Amino acid sequence: MKYKSTRGDVNGLGFSDALLMGLASDNGLLIPEEIPDVSNALAEYRTLDFIGLAQALMPLFIDDIDRATLDRLVSESYATFAHDEVIGWRQLDNIAVMELFHGPTLAFKDIALQLLGKLFQHVLSERGERLNILGATSGDTGSAAIAGVRGQDNVDIFILFPEGRISPLQELQMTTVPDANVHCIGVQGSFDDCQRLMKTVFSDAAYKAKYSLGAVNSVNWARILAQIVYYAYASLRYPDGARFSVPTGNFGNVFAAYIAQHMGFPIRQLLVATNDNDILARFFATGTYARGDVHQTLSPAMDIQVASNFERFLYYHFDEDSARLRRFMEEFAQHGEASVGSPPAPSLLNAMAIGRHETLAAMDSVQAKYGYTLDPHTAVGYAAAQKGGLEDAVVVATAHPAKFPDAVSEATGEQPTHPTLEALVNQPTRKDDLAADLDAVKAYVALRATTQG
Questions:
Q1: Residue 71, domain member (yes or no)
Q2: C-alpha to C-alpha distance for 274 and 281, rounded to whole angstroms
Q3: Which of 16, 193, 318, 451 is 20 to 30 Å from 288 at the Cα level?
Q4: Which structural domain range is residue 409 located in?
């Protein structure tokens, strides 16, 4: 399997090169040159547990790591998860909740980033190289990425987060990590500012090469690859086709489901559930992708107005026409909006925005009726499924409710806890504060990055 860029100037990369490149050198996003068709293997896949399915699917996309080593890396990645089957399942009458928060940082991103950390460690060790990871987080990516690479001697990690705009517990999950290879940076701005800074740094090819920069955000294809597995696994419970309601900010999570469907897994509908930061809901309603103001909400990991993974979807929507995609992205960068004309047909993908009142109401009603606690992001997905009439939907539960105690308390009067989070309180913290300034970020990384040799 080889990889290419959505923007057309990079192709023929092996998986390991794509892993380390992260963002393509032409500023596009890397994708496989072909999407494998697994429709004839579904009966066999139904006999596998989660790890077995991951071990079956990974070699379809990774052919430059030998099978035995790859199987071991996959198995090791999920050894610390608190659930025997890695993911949990809770049926609430006709709606199912797929729990993706049983990893070390209690968020769905652990499923991808535990594997990504193992892959980085293996590839860098094989090559005798090191990497400086630069990432931006709206809440959960940062702590999950740190957990995946902390203490590694061939990786330093730099995480940008919007100061004051993630939950206090999310911040503690990053800033209490004592390992010397971890660098947490509170940016005076929004997550979109953090993401813009990260992408602009990566677009400086000379700087990226000098400091051996790599990515852990969902711009890295390996993140999407790992997330495909849980959609594949869940869909096999529904021979006639699963319908997923996915809380969505950066579009990476739901894009993994989109790829799983194109591989032949039984998925018949994807609902993109957003909060008041509704750029995606507006796009699927109108065909226009238009930046808006970033609103602080109860679901901060989704407080995003520019969804970095959306470019991958647009590439396929444009029938893999890189020139058309490039024009669209240039227009959006210049004017803050761009249009595809008519909105995409809603046969597979549609979208819905859920406001604060609806989020709180969903959390309250589920607690009262089922004694089950939703975090505010999952509540957005649950409310969207009900509002959209997806009566047999699978709602993707992206985080443990204890990460958002204030929102849960406001909605239900309950105060969720988790021993992993309780242990963070009163621990020493380390972080640095920076303005949302490109030169400041570059200088910070340059001073602390470890370069080759």
A1: no
A2: 7
A3: 193
A4: 88-106+221-417
Q: What is the pLDDT of residue 452?
A: 57
pTM for the full predicted model: 0.93
The domain spanning residue 378 has which CATH number? 3.40.50.1100
* 398 closest CA partner among 381, 378, 380: 378
Active site residue 109: yes
The helix (H) or strand (E) run that includes residue 194 is helix 191-203
pLDDT digits (tens, 9 = 90+) for 52-81: 999 999 999 999 999 999 999 999 999 999
Q: Which residues contact 20 (CB under 8 A, 6 or more apart)?
A: 120, 123, 124, 129, 131, 214
Q: Is 400 within a domain?
A: yes
User: Residue 323: inside a domain, yes or no?
Assistant: yes
pLDDT digits (tens, 9 = 90+) for 83-138: 999 999 999 999 999 999 999 999 999 999 999 999 999 999 999 999 999 999 98
**pLDDT for residue 453 is more than 90:** no
Tokens of 206: 């000379």
Number of domains into which the chain is organized: 1
Using CB atoms within 10 Å of the CB of residue 48, give its burial: 0 to 12 exposed, 13 to 18 middle, 19+ buried. middle
Look at residue 27 and tell me if it is in a domain. no
